[in-house]
């Protein structure tokens, strides 16, 4: 039990507490309570929950390519900006100190060994090592806040301007290792969210309802200086930058809690979840698999073949074959409708109306719609079935009236819904029993699982009590 | 039972038991769970009240609840002479004559599950017999009432009832299979047992934790490429467990030898021994059998959580053999303890739980 609840062998005190009990004897109540209240237990729960959240986003793109910098022949530069800066791909600056026009301060270029006009380097104290200096190509090291045409150099558009660089101390750019640190931090941040719910003995539902996020130095720096440059990947920003704690980039091991807006739904809207499952369907599917024990799977006998007419039906909820899963999946995915796909941003109802008059007008009149409309609203109907949804937020496409509120109420509502109908408590009880027993539950276990689930609900979805019920059960104590 | 009695009362309009108060009193004094049911019944039965209020005759004879008295009761009505209820059975009969005789005062609610249809005697023809047939309606009219009857507290709010469903059959408990420790548990357990020594290797200027470095090989999912943890004690696991055990055990025995040497030279040594706890390096089984055995018992407790008593020699047999065999081959007690240590780490009792 100590291995399961604490991740280690019992220490001398715990062994003494178990007295002379045999393997068949129940572990004393007080000893179980001590283990569950200990600081190791929440981390065991976190470890158990990794299999549900898969919180590794190492393969996701979190920033625009123009924000990435690296080693260009011993000097730091951006490989993707070379064309804009120097007119050709992979043409880097020369290994000599940069020169500047004494009047205007503009960067001066000179022919390199191959006769190309390139600039030199400047020494910069980067944000990741402020006490040292590194050589950075002068164009990349520019610190202008705005370009000549007024574009904010911190935005994605700014990264494509020749008079925009990486900012003071290269704050707007990342090397590979800083990027990896941010990705790791997002994954760890999600784990701290789980840890907090268990450590504070909150309702399990808080996992999907809380509005907190844990951030460390690299994440604070990322949100302050780099998230806006990522374009749609983090925008519209779902985190209030003014609420970020004051943490230095080097504080990678310092985790501080910050409050988020009411639209957040705990781990279900955490960037690590949103980037690990980039589409709304993937987000809903993972939730159904992990927390409702209801994977979307076709029947073993296969699906009926769709008729030619049905195959052209763009609404997967009604298309033959597809509807077997999508009739349920599409309304479920709509809960993430205001959380754009391939993004951790949030489309607030105030800035992004369910139906935008301008987008309706351009869509209906066949005019060219704005980038705002094109990015977020249905402005082009490829089939007659889509026409009723023109000018509406994309998440509303093919939404039936009875499912429209899913978009507005978000994943938090989904979590409450499945808690109320007991699907979530049932599945959590099953998952917990399987974790601690190390085997899959069978039909003969169903009554026991039902009992666990009922007690879990009656106890206010207290996860510690659920675990206690399992480890004190006959099923757990009997080992073959 | 109560249900039948209640039905009888409601339909037929007579009390179930004239002597209910006395029986209740007796039942309560016997800690009889049926007593409270009786109490409830009396309270719920509107027709029972007048009879309860009837003056009670003083008792002059033997206690009416004695088995002998029950025999008298039987004699009072030959038609009900199918069994001889004892005192406790009488209490049951008091509520309804139709209850199975097997029901006794210790029966729980489940036991009151009736063999349904034949129970109630809702026969109007019996109504006239109610006063003269105490067995049928639970009253022993010939019994003198207690001299100074005490009122019985009746809780009118309480309801008891019988379950309409048969009790569920006991669920078969499927035991859990032994599981392999995951890599985090294994690494922590090894470190705990070895007094903080980890399975590490020098890589450049850094000491690398090999459990971490080899985690994906050892089945730990990264949740990017792999999402399922492999907890099979397969050959890859066995191979690396062996490597880890050899490495950690080597460091453990080296630490203990160093400690022993320092103490021999009169120096101080702060950390406790980790492998040679009850024995010293030069001791052999032939010369110091008890010390070797004590140390093995300690190690079995430490590595496998197994408490081996002094008289359980057979539990030490394999370990003694391993110690002796290694000593015979290498002639080095440190090697013998190293072999025991590796054996303990690679034994399923260590990594399965």
Task: Explain what the structure shows.
The complex is a heterodimer of chains A (480) and B (353). Chain A is mainly alpha-helical and 480 residues long. In chain A, 37% of the residues lie in helices and 6% in strands. Chain A has helices spanning 2-6, 12-17, 29-37, 41-53, 82-86, 176-199, 217-226, 271-276, 280-291, 308-311, 323-333, 357-365, 371-376, 404-420, 423-437, 446-458, 463-471, 474-477; strands spanning 70-72, 75-77, 99-100, 107-108, 110-111, 117-118, 121-124, 134-137, 212-215, 256-259. Chain A has a two-stranded antiparallel ribbon. In chain A, strands 3-4 form a two-stranded antiparallel sheet. In chain A, strands 5-6 form a two-stranded antiparallel sheet. Chain A is globular, with a radius of gyration of 27 Å. Chain A starts with a helix and ends with a helix. The mean pLDDT of chain A is 93. The longest helix of chain B is centred in the C-terminal third of the chain and has 30 residues, at 235-264. In chain B, α2 (20-29) crosses α6. With 353 residues, chain B is mostly helical. In chain B, strands 1-2 form a two-stranded antiparallel sheet. In chain B, β1 and β2 form a beta hairpin. Chain B contains 14 helices and two strands; from the N terminus they run ααααααααββαααααα. Helix content of chain B is 44%, strand content 2%. Chain B has helices spanning 2-12, 20-29, 33-44, 48-53, 67-76, 87-95, 134-137, 183-193, 210-213, 235-264, 289-304, 317-330, 333-346, 348-351, and strands at residues 200-203, 206-209. Classes of the chains: A mainly alpha (480), B mainly alpha (353).
């Amino acid at each position: 039990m100590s291995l399961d609840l604490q991740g280690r062998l019992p220490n001398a005190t715990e062994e003494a507490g178990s007295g002379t009990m045999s393997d068949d004897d129940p572990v004393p109540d007080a000893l179980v309570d001590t283990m569950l209240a200990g600081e190791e237990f929440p981390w065991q729960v976190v470890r158990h929950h990794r299999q549900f959240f898969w919180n590794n986003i190492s393969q996701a793109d979190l920033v625009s390519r123009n924000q990435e910098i690296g080693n260009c022949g011993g000097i730091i530069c951006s490989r993707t900006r070379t064309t804009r800066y120097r007119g050709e791909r992979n043409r880097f600056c020369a290994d000599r100190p940069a020169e500047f026009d004494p009047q205007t301060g503009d960067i001066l270029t000179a022919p390199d060994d191959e006769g190309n006009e390139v600039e030199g380097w400047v020494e910069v104290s980067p944000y990741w090592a402020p006490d040292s200096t590194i050589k950075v190509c002068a164009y990349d090291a520019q610190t202008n806040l705005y370009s000549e045409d007024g574009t904010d150099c911190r935005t994605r558009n700014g990264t494509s301007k020749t008079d925009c660089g990486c900012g003071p101390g290269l704050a707007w750019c990342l090397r590979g290792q800083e990027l990896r640190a941010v990705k790791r931090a997002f994954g760890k941040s999600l784990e701290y969210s789980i840890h907090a719910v268990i450590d504070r003995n909150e309702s399990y539902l808080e996992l999907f309802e809380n509005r907190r996020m844990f951030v460390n130095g690299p994440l604070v720096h990322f949100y302050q200086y780099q998230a806006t440059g990522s374009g749609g990947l983090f925008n519209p920003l779902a985190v209030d930058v003014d609420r970020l704690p004051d943490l230095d980039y080097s504080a990678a091991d310092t985790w501080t809690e910050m409050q988020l807006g009411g639209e957040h739904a705990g781990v279900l809207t955490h960037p690590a979840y949103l980037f690990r499952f980039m589409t709304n369907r993937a987000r809903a599917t993972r939730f159904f698999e992990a927390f409702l024990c209801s994977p979307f799977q076709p029947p073993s006998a296969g699906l009926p073949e769709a008729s030619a007419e049905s195959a052209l039906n763009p609404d997967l909820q009604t298309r033959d074959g597809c509807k077997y899963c999508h009739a349920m999946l599409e309304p479920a995915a709509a809960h993430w409708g205001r959380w754009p796909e391939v993004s951790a941003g949030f489309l607030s109802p105030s800035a992004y109306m369910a139906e935008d008059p301008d987008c309706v007008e351009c869509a209906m009149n066949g005019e060219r719609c704005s980038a705002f409309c094109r990015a977020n609203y249905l402005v082009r109907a490829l089939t007659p079935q889509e026409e009723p949804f023109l000018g509406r937020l994309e998440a509303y496409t093919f939404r039936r009236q009875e499912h429209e509120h899913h978009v507005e109420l978000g994943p938090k509502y989904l979590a409450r819904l499945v808690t109320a109908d007991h699907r979530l408590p049932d599945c959590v009880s099953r998952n917990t029993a399987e974790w601690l027993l190390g085997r899959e539950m069978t039909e003969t276990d169903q009554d026991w699982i039902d009992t666990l689930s009922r007690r879990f609900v009656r106890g206010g979805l207290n996860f510690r009590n659920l675990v206690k019920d399992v480890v004190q059960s006959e099923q757990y104590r009997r080992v073959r | 039972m109560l249900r039948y009695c209640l039905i009888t009362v409601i339909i037929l309009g007579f009390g179930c038991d004239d002597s209910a108060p006395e029986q209740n009193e007796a039942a309560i004094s016997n800690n009889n769970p049926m007593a409270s049911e009786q109490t409830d019944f009396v309270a719920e039965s509107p027709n029972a009240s007048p009879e309860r209020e009837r003056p009670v005759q003083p008792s002059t004879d033997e206690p009416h609840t004695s088995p002998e008295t029950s025999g008298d009761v039987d004699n009072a009505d030959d038609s009900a002479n199918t069994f001889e209820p004892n005192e406790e059975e009488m209490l049951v009969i008091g509520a309804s004559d139709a209850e199975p005789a097997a029901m006794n005062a210790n029966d729980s609610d489940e036991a009151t599950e009736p063999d349904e249809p034949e129970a109630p005697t809702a026969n109007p023809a019996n109504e006239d017999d109610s006063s003269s047939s105490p067995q049928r309606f639970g009253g022993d009219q010939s019994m003198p009432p207690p001299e100074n009857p005490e009122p019985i507290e009746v809780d009118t709010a309480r309801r008891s009832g019988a379950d309409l469903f048969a009790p569920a059959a006991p669920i078969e408990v499927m035991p859990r299979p032994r599981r392999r420790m995951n890599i985090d548990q294994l690494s922590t357990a090894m470190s705990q047992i070895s007094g903080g020594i980890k399975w590490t290797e020098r890589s450049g200027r850094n000491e690398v934790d090999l459990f971490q470095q080899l985690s994906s090989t050892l089945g730990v999912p990264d949740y990017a490429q792999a999402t399922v943890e492999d907890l099979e004690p397969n050959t890859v696991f066995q191979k690396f467990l062996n490597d880890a055990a050899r490495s950690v055990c080597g460091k453990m025995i080296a630490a203990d030898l160093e400690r022993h040497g320092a103490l021999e030279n009169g120096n101080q040594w702060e950390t406790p021994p980790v492998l040679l706890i009850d024995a010293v390096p030069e001791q052999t089984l032939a010369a110091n059998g008890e010390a070797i055995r004590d140390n093995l018992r300690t190690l079995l407790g430490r590595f496998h959580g197994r408490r081996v008593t002094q008289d359980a020699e057979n539990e030490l047999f394999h370990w003694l053999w391993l110690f002796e065999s290694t000593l015979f081959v290498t002639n080095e007690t440190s090697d013998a303890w190293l072999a025991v240590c590796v054996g303990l780490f690679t034994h399923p009792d260590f990594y399965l739980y």
